[in-house]
Amino acid sequence: MQMPASESGAPEREGLGEPRLELFSYIPESALVVVAHPDDADFLAAALLSCWCRQGCRGAVCVVTDGDAGSDDASIPLGELSRIRMEEQRRASAHLGVSEVRCLGYPDGLLQPGLELRRDLVRLIRELRPEALVTMDPSRRWFGRGYLNHPDHRAAADAALDAAFPSARDARVFPELVREEGLQPHKVRFVLVGASEPDIAVPLEPRDIENQLAALGEHRSQFDASEMGPEMEREAREGGARAGVAMAATYKLFDLVPNPSQRGYQRQEGREEGLPAPPEQASQWG
Ligand SMILES: [Zn+2]
Predict the structure, then answer these.
(1) What is the whole-number distance in angstroms between the Cα of residue 91 and the centre of ligand 1?
(2) Options 3.40.190.10, 3.40.50.10320, 3.30.70.920, 3.40.228.10; which CATH number does 28-255 get?
(3) Cα of 153 to ligand 1 centre, how many Å?
(4) DSSP assignment, residue 91?
(5) What is the pLDDT of residues 63-72, one digit of tens each?
(6) What pLDDT, in 10s, does the model give residues 95-107?
């Protein structure tokens, strides 16, 4: 078993290859994925959600924009594409066992990480009370030579991180949410950032990749996922190889409410003696 990065101080390097990743097989009680567009969540976290939800995690997806800019087809009436894409998102999330899909309805293509968006995300976090929040890396301005990161991706992720910490935690930030809506502060324990320099690997099974492909396959208004299987598998195998497992999804992890008695983030069979206690505020959502 490798030394967790948290104990060794830095991820180990193996030869000249990529840094070895800490295995994260802990299953959160609840997880919220925040992304800009319908389909983003399924590239970012479909296999992760499949893995966590089949092991008892309550999964939720929040799509911040209405997705209405995702076509050049002028014959599609305004608003219709949004309806189609959110329906695709709901069907996609159903493949993963996700119980909750929300859309905040911000105009697609014009997203800004302002206070209105942050308040809406704080409201959602205080309502759903997720133990883990998953989003993109807002600092990624580009990837390779062929892709400038979409401004909505950066804005949604930026607002999501600010909402998770510190705004959802602090009663005196957006106090009207407590006063008028009865939404008490909530500490998100884990934040997982994708499309970033990863430091953890969440072990997957082949069925998680199958579920991810099924989820991606629902976004028919956007792309044809029928050829994506080998690429998804390759990514999962490369992630797994960095943590000594067959397949894994990789993320950058923040543990904002560390449990001092917990060493590493290994899989726990139930929540019994000697296992890390869930954070005090992790709770149900209905
Ligand atoms: Zn997108």
Answers:
(1) 17
(2) 3.40.50.10320
(3) 6
(4) H
(5) 999 999 988 8
(6) 999 999 999 999 9
